[in-house]
Design goal:
six-stranded mixed β-sheet, five-stranded mixed β-sheet, 22 strands, 16 helices, 451 residues, globular, alpha/beta, single chain
Length: 451
């Protein structure tokens, strides 16, 4: 009996899959922490014979190369891809036998030029499932602007044709298993639901609702900013990344932290953002540990700058380190744990105020008050506070000098990104107030809006 086991990575909004017939198994788009996959296979007594990549990933460092090397499995990558390692190159309609299972590759360009989907079938049931990577998502498609601006329209047209090909060639009951679409910025538009079939996608998918020209106009017009670290993932995956070592970083004492801060390194505090605001080591940056942590750190920091992690407990630091290996940050310069007062070189901590939009409304007309909106450009264009300054959170460090003089009230849509922006300005010596509140409250309170 065929079983598809989903291995979720909520921190990146992605899924990997282990598929088996009771003895032999293949894996689709594994994340870098392959121990999860190996544990599932070992618990069921499975031999992993093939590791399949739907595409060269842009949002994470793959675990495929390492998993294939550790298990002796064949590493299956599109033959059209230029990679620096040995692989089993496959093209459109090539078949792969995995025990009693048959997998057929379909070339489905769009998310990337060489993108493949893998159709699962067996002698009894025909085509029962399709692993769609960044092609057909749940009601949506993978974004098409990650390769280059020059190729975006061409890939968007290809994406429309690829999704329609899947809808036309596969049976309505075939289950759809995408890699992206669960919060990943690789999705071009929001996805709907947690499961689907080809029949559902024929009715609901964005590529099925309009002709090619209208699809291209709608999709490209709606593409939003994506994390800056994506630029480094494709090259890393073409080199064949090995499994991360996850070596415990060195411990930094207060004097060592101060030296790193003075040298311009990034000292990232993982604690809850309000706790950081109440007391933190001056010169550190707040990126609260949670599912978005790795994505937003990778989006914010200058790539390659040394990173030191501060947490309440060693377990926090270990979780953050794991998340960072998934995006290729393998070397953590140092770590430190404990209350902020014990980590400051002179025992003196910094702090700033945390408030909400109601307090902003009460102080709206106060002279010297500056409102800084750190949301994405598309969010700003959809509606913003009148008179606010807009600098996306990932640009605040480089553009801090553009923020007008005064007390800076920093907001986003929920408070998470505002905590990054506020802490970066605090590090630069500005007086800040962190608005930790839902953006919808601004309109409900009658604050003046522009668009």
């Amino acid at each position: 009996m065929t079983e598809v086991i989903t291995i979720e990575t909520p921190a990146l909004g992605d899924r990997s899959y282990l598929v088996h017939d009771g003895a032999k198994a293949f894996v689709v788009d594994p994340q870098r922490d392959i121990d999860r996959i190996l544990a599932v296979a070992a618990a069921r007594g499975l031999e992993i014979t093939h590791v399949l990549e739907t595409h060269i990933h842009n949002d994470y460092v793959t675990g495929g190369f390492a998993l294939a090397g550790q298990t002796g499995a064949a590493y299956v990558v599109a033959a059209s891809e230029d990679v620096s390692f040995e692989r089993v190159g496959v093209a459109d309609r090539d078949e792969i036998a995995v025990g009693s299972l048959t997998v057929t590759a379909l070339h489905t360009p769009g998310h990337t030029p060489g993108h493949l989907c893998y159709v699962l079938g067996d002698a009894d049931a025909g085509s029962t499932a399709v692993f769609t990577g960044g092609s057909m998502l749940y009601g949506a498609v993978g974004r098409t602007d990650l390769i280059s601006p020059d190729q975006t329209e061409q890939l968007t047209r290809a994406q429309h044709r690829s999704v329609r090909r899947l809808a036309a060639e596969l049976p309505a009951g075939a289950v759809v298993y995408p890699t992206h679409g669960f919060g990943s910025f690789c999705s071009a538009t929001p996805t709907t639901g947690t499961s689907s079939t080809i029949g559902n996608e024929r009715r609901l998918n964005i590529a099925m609702r309009s002709d090619e020209d209208a699809f291209v106009k709608e999709l490209i017009g709606g593409l939003t900013a994506y994390p800056r670290y994506y630029a480094h993932m494709g090259p890393a995956n073409r080199r064949g990344p090995r499994a991360p070592g996850l070596v415990e970083p060195a411990q930094a004492d207060p004097a060592g932290l101060q030296r790193r801060i003075a040298a311009g390194e990034w000292i990232v505090d993982l604690r809850e953002r309000k706790a950081f605001a109440r007391a933190h080591v001056a010169g550190t940056v707040s990126i609260e540990l949670g599912d978005p942590f790795g994505t937003y750190l990778g989006w914010t920091i200058p790539w390659g700058v040394p990173v030191t992690l501060i947490g309440d407990r060693p377990e926090q630091v270990a979780e953050a380190q794991l998340q960072l290996t998934r995006i290729g940050i393998d070397e953590i310069a140092a770590t430190a744990t404990g209350p902020a007062g014990t980590l400051a070189s002179d025992g003196t901590v910094s702090s700033y105020r945390v408030t909400d939009f109601a307090d902003l409304a009460a102080e709206w007309d106060r002279p010297g008050l500056v409102v800084l909106d750190v949301r994405r450009p598309d969010e700003w264009l959809a509606g913003h506070l009148a008179g606010a300054v807009h600098i996306p959170f990932w640009e605040v460090a480089q553009r801090a000098s553009e923020v007008p003089a005064g007390e800076v009230w920093v907001h986003c849509a929920s408070g998470f990104r505002a905590s990054i922006g506020a802490s970066v300005l605090d590090r630069a010596g500005r007086q800040v107030v962190h608005i930790d509140d839902d953006w919808g409250q601004a309109a409900r309170l009658g604050l003046p809006l522009s668009s």
